[in-house]
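Dear Dr. H.,

I hope your travels went smoothly. While you were away I took the liberty of generating a structure for the chain from your last submission, since the lab meeting agenda had it listed for discussion. I wanted you to have the full record in hand beforehand rather than looking at slides cold. The sequence, exactly as received, is reproduced here:
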Amino acid sequence: MRILLTNDDGINAAGIHALKAALDPLGEVVMVAPERPRSASGHAITLHKPLRIDEVALPGGGRGWATNGTPTDCVTLGFDVVMEGRVDLVVSGINDGPNLGWDLTYSGTVAAAIEGAILGAPAFAISVAGDKGPYDYDPAARFARRLAEEIRDRGLERFALLNVNVPAVPADQIRGVSITRQGRRQYVDRIDKRIDPWGRPYYWLCGSLREDEPDPDSDVHAVLENRIAVTPVHLDLTATHLFPALREWRLQ
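The corresponding predicted structure, in token form, is as follows:
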């Protein structure tokens, strides 16, 4: 099994190395990751400057590839340059912090898995869903290996991927696995305005979560219940339920 491994926290992040150690027994695991953290980069790709890729020694032994690109760039370079199109599975993570609900639209971690699905490979993203570290990556790493084995044995529908969130609690407090839908997760007070020494305003993006009651079948609810949330995601974003209403509009 040839596994392309990436993340958005960077090639030096502890989570990706825990994930590689868990997946190594399954075959050839090739790490291609950003040279620096690229969190919340979404599905951005690099168009207006050259992409570089450098082979590096990994702390746990072996070699990996660091790029100056985004997580999506890493998958493209991994496919076409490093692994020459022979990829059986794309795994992105382990992300520091959750990728729940609408976080998917911002997440570089999930975007990397989406790119894997676009390129025709089974893919999943995996995150430790906690407020802040340090994190114990072992429960997520062990679950990632189990999930990779299931995908190897059963396959995964083309152009679909899985988004996994593992509660940041001790392994003996995890209460099982839920197959969930994407929940809602919205931030408020998003802008922090400040003034620099020359009197000019500048801004930090921040914000806190709006405290909504999550739907019981959502990924957000599962993690609150200390359950691993596995959310199937498809590349088709069409809101087909709006077809009848839109056909009534005077658009011709």
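Two observations you may find useful: DSSP finds six helices and 13 strands in the chain. Residues 2-186+214-247 form a domain with the Stationary-phase Survival Protein Sure Homolog; Chain: A, fold (CATH 3.40.1210.10).

With kind regards,
E. W.
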